[in-house]
User: Which sequence fits this backbone?
């Protein structure tokens, strides 16, 4: 499948790009957002982060055709602040996060991200990561599996699925995505399986655990707000309720005037909010986008500006 950058026009408009500014694409992927940012820079510079070597190779070639005002950094965005500091960058004018898997990652069957094809249990965004889906499924304790499936997958049959995984792996190691799907299938009522697709929820939960996605997101968002210049913006696209809840909570907290009576004529500087919300409700894909890219249907874009 062709790769589409989700909500690309809305992100570029939301960034309100200064041609001489410093911008960061925290999730380079296959370079769609980065390319559009780079086209709009004059003396500005773009730093792009990714932990997928295939994406970096592709992105390097794609962006080089636009200009040389960029650098791709092989790192998870959890290291964004430190890696930028290594580049003598302490403030930036905009950051974009696209938290979804890229279509090529999903379509590369051997990565094991999708439950729809037979593949090794992997799910690592960084192929050098020691923890893979295999370790989670074959080595985690029953209680940990239940917790992961319920917390990260919001799956109501987490307990029975986890119990059957533990039971099955006592006979032989579970190594393939199809083996896991079969276990999920017989762990829930047939009507429920056909209607709710619990395998989607379980695969999401395992992927989040393998890549430590939610903890990294919480910590990184606070770092990024810190390094934004005044008028600098963050555009962040989420793809499921857990991510969106974290983003919404942090943005609300940092944009509120805390512990003060509203309507005071002067607000002391230490009580001033750090950011303002550009959109109170998330921006969703247009009907036109949904027609060409069905994978964008769960995407939500939130935008803030540093005060």
Assistant:
């Amino acid at each position: 499948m062709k790769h589409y950058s989700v909500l690309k026009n809305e992100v570029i408009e939301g960034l309100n790009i200064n041609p001489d500014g410093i911008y960061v694409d925290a999730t380079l992927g296959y370079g769609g957002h980065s390319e559009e940012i780079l086209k709009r820079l004059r003396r500005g510079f773009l730093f792009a982060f990714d932990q997928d070597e295939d994406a970096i190779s592709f992105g390097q070639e794609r962006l080089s055709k636009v200009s040389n005002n960029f650098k791709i950094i092989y790192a998870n965005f959890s290291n964004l602040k430190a890696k930028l500091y290594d580049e003598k960058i302490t403030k930036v004018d905009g950051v974009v996060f696209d938290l979804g898997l890229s279509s090529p990652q999903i379509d590369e069957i051997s990565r094991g991200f999708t439950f729809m094809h037979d593949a090794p249990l992997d799910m690592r965004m960084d192929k050098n990561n020691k923890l893979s889906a295999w370790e989670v499924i074959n080595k985690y304790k029953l209680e940990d599996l239940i917790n992961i499936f319920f917390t990260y997958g919001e799956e109501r049959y987490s307990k029975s699925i986890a119990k059957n995984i533990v039971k099955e792996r006592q006979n032989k190691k579970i190594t393939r995505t199809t083996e896991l799907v079969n276990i999920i299938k017989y762990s829930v009522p047939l009507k429920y399986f056909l209607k709710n697709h619990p395998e989607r929820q379980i695969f999401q939960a395992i992927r989040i655990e393998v890549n430590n996605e939610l903890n990294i997101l919480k910590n990184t968002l606070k770092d990024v707000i810190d390094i934004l210049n005044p008028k600098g913006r963050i555009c962040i696209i989420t793809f499921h309720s857990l991510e969106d809840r974290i983003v919404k909570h942090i943005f609300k907290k940092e944009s509120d005037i805390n512990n003060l009576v509203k309507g005071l004529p002067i607000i002391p500087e230490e009580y001033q909010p750090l950011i303002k919300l550009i959109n109170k409700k998330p921006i969703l894909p247009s009907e036109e986008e949904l027609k060409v890219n069905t994978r964008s249907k769960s995407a939500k874009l939130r935008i803030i500006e540093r005060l």
